[in-house]
Design a protein that fits this description.
By secondary structure, this protein is an alpha/beta fold. The radius of gyration is 22 Å and the shape is globular. It has two domains: 163 residues, Aspartate Aminotransferase, domain 1 (Alpha-Beta Complex); 232 residues, Type I PLP-dependent aspartate aminotransferase-like (Major domain) (Aspartate Aminotransferase, domain 2). The chain is built from 16 helices and 13 strands. 42% of the residues lie in helices and 14% in strands. The structure holds pyridoxal-5'-phosphate (PLP).
């Protein structure tokens, strides 16, 4: 056995193997701004996998806000929020965000990932428990790994299982952490039941609104507003990298909780603060998000159109209740192949394979934005139909009869190298750290 730390790197061939097959879907090189259409490899592609829900990432006013902030404050804060890296713009957007979501205070981290790492590890101390949904985002899992407390997990959106976990630790302080909209499945956390159980067991509720802020609720405030349960969300996290068209992560809560996180969260204290250009973009995006509700309305109209379109082709969109619409295609390799064929047809999507989803239920994760036109959407649907017929995945044209995709048994594409499939799984499993 070698004791060279690089041994594993030399043996890591799976990504190259997928590339050699011509179906590698990762690290695509985008050569334009992120809109509903992007330029990749010199060709225009319709995007069906972005989190730019309100279409603000190339909005002229957001860009202006970003440029103006860079001009005024320079390109970097060159230090941590804790020391020299806080400016008045950081504090302005923190106040604006807290006011918007109806919390006393908020703190802005450098990324959404950092905000989950920081808030969870700071709140969940040595004798405490954090309880997460099995489909929570990887950054939540990473926050739990960084905390010194115990971690328990419940089956996805299964309230009986959540109660079982709460009962196991009823003498300890507990934090329940869920995604508002789940990032792969597109379904919504059962906040009404979660908050009832939290009250019953004296636990606190933390909701990651990465995909729900700007999307859910009449005013786009997220899951709490959607269920009319805003005060039941004790800690609200939102990333600025999706509807807010920038980067950064907010944690909003009571004055005391934010003050505690501010002074104890290592991922806040030991990294440089968000650059002015990014904060300037958030500042403007937060205004547009509130002033232009018609964007949210269009996003939901687009979502409805796409769901109906996929259902009419016979596809299963799982439990999706949001602009994230997963399309079940079956085996992992089919998902890779299908994404690559869609890409060749100028539709940009992402495959999600096991262990991120159950074995044999790989999906194409599609997501939509307010700035998709009917033409874009019809193009995406046409190409899905074309490619899935070519692959023999669906027989096509039938109306949805069951909750399962009508996957054709005689698919035309198959992949039989099980060693390769196992290596892919091992790699992704390590990455996802889900099961
Ligand atoms: C649910 C969820 N939480 C947190 C994050 C991390 O946010 P960011 O990418 O802004 O760091 C993501 C990003 O994809 C996410 O989907």
């Amino acid at each position: 056995m070698s004791n060279d730390i690089f041994e594993k790197c030399n043996k890591f061939t799976v990504a190259r193997d997928i590339q050699a097959l011509g179906v590698y879907p990762y690290f695509k090189r985008v050569e334009s701004a992120q809109g509903p259409v992007v330029l990749i490899e010199g060709k225009k592609r319709i995007v069906a996998c972005s989190n730019n829900y309100l279409g603000l990432a190339d909005h002229p006013k957001v860009i202006e806000g970003s440029v103006a902030a860079a001009k005024k404050y320079g390109t970097s804060c060159t230090g941590s929020r804790f020391l020299n890296g806080t400016n008045d713009l950081h504090e302005k957007v923190e106040r604006k965000f807290a006011k918007f979501v109806g919390k006393e205070s908020s703190i802005l981290f450098t990324t959404g990932h950092h905000s989950n790492l920081g808030a969870i590890s700071s709140l969940v101390g040595k004798n405490d428990v954090v309880i997460t949904d099995k489909l929570d985002h990887a950054s939540i899992i990473d926050g739990c790994r960084l905390s010194l407390g115990e971690m328990l997990r419940f089956r996805h959106n299964d309230m009986a299982d959540l109660e079982r976990q709460l009962a196991k630790c009823k003498d300890k302080a507990a934090l329940i952490v869920v995604d508002g909209i789940f990032s792969m499945e597109g379904d919504i956390a059962n906040l009404p039941e979660i908050s009832k159980l939290a009250k019953k067991y004296g636990a606190r509720v933390f909701v990651d609104e990465a995909h729900s802020l700007g999307v859910l609720g009449k005013n786009g405030k997220g899951t709490g507003e959607h269920f009319n349960l805003e005060p039941e969300v004790d800690v609200l996290m939102a990333t600025a990298s999706k509807s807010m068209a920038s980067i950064g992560g907010f944690i909003a809560s009571s004055e005391e909780v934010i003050n505690y996180i501010k002074h104890t969260a290592r991922p806040l204290i030991f990294t440089a603060s968000l650059p002015p250009a990014c904060v300037g973009a958030i500042d403007v995006a937060l205004d547009i998000l509130q002033d232009e509700p018609e964007r949210r309305a269009k996003l939901w109209a687009n979502t409805k159109k796409m769901k109906e379109g996929f259902h009419s082709m016979g596809f299963d969109t799982r439990e999706s209740e949001s602009p994230i619409i997963p399309i079940t295609v079956g085996e992992d390799m089919i998902a890779f192949k299908m994404c690559s064929m869609l890409f060749d047809e100028c539709v940009f999507t992402s495959p999600v394979v096991s262990p991120a989803v159950p074995e044999g239920q790989a999906i194409i994760r599609t997501s939509y934005m307010a700035t998709h036109t009917d033409e874009h959407l019809e193009f995406i649907l046409d190409k899905f139909e074309k490619v899935s017929k070519e692959l023999g995945i669906i027989s096509g044209g039938t109306t949805r009869k069951s909750s399962k995709t009508m996957l054709n048994k005689k698919r035309k594409f198959s992949f039989s190298d099980t060693d390769f499939a196992a290596a892919t799984k091992k790699w992704l499993k390590r990455l996802w750290f889900t099961k």
